Amino acid sequence: MSEPLVPHVSRTPGSADFFDAAAAGKLLLRKCNNCSAFRGPQDAICPQCHTSAHATEYASGEATLVSWAVVHRSPLPELQASTPYVAGIVEVAEGPWLVVRVLTAPDETVHAGTALEIWVAPGVDGGESLPMARTRPAQFSG
Fold first, then answer.
1. DSSP 10
2. What is the rounded CA–CA span in Å between residue 2 and residue 30?
3. Under a CB-based contact definition with an 8 Å cutoff, are residues 130 and 111 in contact?
4. Of 48, 54, 44, nearest in space to 14 by CA
5. Which residue from 20, 31, 78, 80 puts its CA 20 to 30 A from 8's CA?
6. What is the mean pLDDT of the chain?
7. Taking 50 as the threshold, does the pLDDT of residue 88 lie above it?
8. Residue 142 and residue 136: Cα distance in Å, rounded?
9. What are 130's strand-pairing partners?
10. Residue from 25, 23, 49 nearest 36 by CA
């Protein structure tokens, strides 16, 4: 089983904690200091109360597939060798939605509501690690 290809992404000062957690194999979420709502790592303000103050917390790793598309022509040249692959919108157990690659077992089909787990793929050639989702940890294909 080969590791899935991870596209190159650039960290910013605002995303450093997210990528540090990903390098340790964890998904870091933001939790509002005002109303305690979770938000995705990309959200600068709380979608519930619109404040920017937040703490961080690790996600449980549980997720549900909301929607997906099978990518046959990757917009990123470095992922073209991995096509076809599944790009999905997942809802993590804490509430936020994330866009991630969904790793599936060979010939496996997915549907809205498929239970997933968040998994962090290591970066390639010193690049950043990125969260992905998978259906069956021992049988996914890259």
1. -
2. 32
3. no
4. 44
5. 31
6. 88
7. yes
8. 12
9. 121
10. 49
